Amino acid sequence: MILDLLTKKYPGFRLWFLQRISGLIIAIFLIIFIARLYFIDVHTFQGWKFFFTPFWMQILFLLTWVCICFHGWIGVRNVIKDYIRYYHLRIFLLNIIALASIAYIFIMLWILY
Fold this sequence. Notes:
With 113 residues, the chain is mainly α. It has one domain (2-112): Up-down Bundle (3 helical TM bundles of succinate and fumarate reductases). Helices cover 84% and strands 0% of the residues. The chain contains five helices and no strands. The protein is elongated and about 50 Å long.
């Protein structure tokens, strides 16, 4: 049943479903982040460095950042497609937002590694 909905027959459902999955990953990261924040003293630079030192935390943070960019892109994409009727302006804005999201991901990669 769910596979039928994810086919090309219903293209809007696929993006809706991916936005919900990315929201779930963001929520899971937030819970882990708050739990780690409770147990680790982060009042100094060394504390923050220790906070993000484990490789699994870096990967989870990067995955969450990608999900935030993707989640935001889908939301803004839907608003632009609903309210901007001029086709060329819509395509231009969608491309700018997609490039900005990709740039944010590369900036985070540069900061983390």
